[in-house]
Amino acid sequence: MVAVRRAQEMQQKAEKRARKFRKQARLLEQAQKDRNDWKDIAEYRRRQRVKAIRERDHKQDQMSQLARERETVQERLVQITRERDTTLRVTENRRRAWEMHRIQSFERENYLQDQTEAALVEIHRLNNLLHPILRPTPVYLEVGPQVIVADNDGMEVDEPAVAAPPLHEDVEDEELEPVSDEDGEAIFDTDSDDEPGV
Fold first, then answer.
1. Is residue 141 part of a domain?
2. Are residues 59 and 52 in contact, defined by beta-carbon separation less than 8 angstroms?
3. Side-chain-side CA neighbours of residue 1 (13 Å)
4. Which helix (H) or strand (E) holds 3?
5. Residue 144 is assigned to a structural domain of this protein
6. What total number of domains does the chain contain?
7. Domain membership flag for residue 29
């Protein structure tokens, strides 16, 4: 009996220890499971962090590329602006030069025209001095009585017996010789029908 009682007590103690060990095993298993869950969560978080870092680096590379392209575009814009300003400045200078040339050409043309007219007048005057045109003294014959009628009332006027001769009857047209300038080119008289060459 004593042995049976001791065996029962030992069995009860063994069962009690087994329950205790099973309880500890369940707690240990739960802890292991929780640790695995936390480990999975940590791995997921690590992967998310690595992905975020890669995306950040990629975006930084894109921003750097955009910054370089923007600098290139700005430099090109500055170059185009300088070329445009240079073209506008050259165009304005050419326009002013053309305008000044046109004004000077107009003034030169007017000056040469005035000089030519003055020279032609002087040549004509000198030609008249060198080769004067003689006109005969008009001869008036004695004229008989005449009747002058103020109003046309049908009355006739007695004409003179002898008509006076024309003024230029005996005078022939005198040919004018062209006068040469310093370069040996002929200068035409103002009375000539020929136009001087340019």
1. no
2. no
3. 0
4. helix 2-130
5. no
6. 1
7. yes
Show contacts of 153-159: CB within 8 Å, 24+ apart.
none
- Non-local (6+) Cβ contacts of 176 within 8 A are 127, 131, 189, 191, 192
Output the tens digit of pLDDT for each of the chain's 198 residues. Answer: 777 777 888 888 888 888 888 888 888 888 888 888 898 999 999 999 999 999 999 999 999 999 999 999 999 999 999 999 999 999 999 999 999 999 999 999 999 999 999 999 999 888 888 887 777 666 666 655 555 555 555 555 444 444 455 544 444 555 555 555 555 555 544 444 444 444
**Pick from 178, 184, 139: nearest CA to 162:** 139
Structure tokens at 166: 């024309």
Burial level of 179, CB count in 10 A (0-12/13-18/19+)?
middle
Cα separation of 93 and 10, whole Å? 121
Give a yes or no: residue 159 inside a domain: no
| Residue 2 domain boundaries | 1-126
